[in-house]
Amino acid sequence: MNITPANTDVFIATQYKGIYMSKSKSWPAINIDLPKGKIKVAVSACLLGEKTRYDGEHKSDQFIKDALGEVFNLVSICPEVEFGFGVPREPLQLVGDPQSPRLITRESKKDYTEIMVRWAKNRALALKQEGIKGFILKSNSPTCGIRQVKIYDQNGNAVKKGVGLFVLVLKKYFPFAPMENEKRIHNDKIYQEFIKEITNYLTSEKR
Ligand code: SF4
């Protein structure tokens, strides 16, 4: 079966239905003209199994690596490690106003906001030049989180929710690019929607 962008969603719906029910580790074969394996989607490095987290661990996600890896060219990104924080490192947290939060180390209270924003602008530009068309980013991260990231007050209480600092910058450079986190993308409907949005995004870029 040859799939065109116009009927991609139908194909995905039929081919991927049941993945989560069966928890199968062998993903269905993909035959897709998106073109398969050429569209670049940036993925948080820890989800791809890289030990980039503050505690030296990863959050490897088999579905992202196998099923999404079949369709897309997955490009690993880790804002914190690329920025220059080591592994392991002191965890960071967001503090203050959700619209413009501060990025601060949890214990030593060092503020990295301005320098991270500057770095993130350059990284976003580089990702644009590299031809990234979508993002799958780690949930709950003060840099990678796309939604519902805890934001603390000065007393260390999690009082609000917002978006990771890297993503705040990224959204300015990629206002229409599909972005999801690893929790939501495991939902069949959201996964299909993500594929559809990528297809629409590619079409809109050609206009
Ligand atoms: S959540 Fe983002 S910043 Fe943290 S380890 Fe994963 S890729 Fe790196």
Mean pLDDT: 86
Helical region count? 7
Question: Got a strand count?
Answer: 8
The low-confidence parts are 1-25
Strand content: 15-25%
Rg is 18 Å
**Which class do the helix and strand fractions yield?**
alpha/beta
The SSE order reads HHEHEHEEHEEEHEH
Tell me roughly what share of residues is in helical segments: 25-40%
Q: Strands across the major sheet, in which order? A: 2-1-5-8
Give the biggest beta sheet.
4 strands, parallel
Textual characterization of the structure:
- With 207 residues, the chain is α/β, with parallel strands linked by helices.
- It has one domain (5-206).
- Helices cover 36% and strands 17% of the residues.
- It contains seven helices and eight strands.
- The protein has helices spanning 8-16, 19-22, 62-71, 79-83, 113-130, 165-173, 188-206; strands at 40-44, 73-77, 92-95, 102-105, 132-137, 149-152, 158-162, 179-181.
- The strands form two sheets. It has a four-stranded parallel beta sheet with strand order 2-1-5-8. A four-stranded mixed beta sheet has the order 4-3-6-7, with no helix packed on it.
- β3 (92-95) and β4 form a beta hairpin.
- α1 packs antiparallel against α7 (188-206) and α5 (113-130) crosses α6 (165-173).
- The chain is globular.
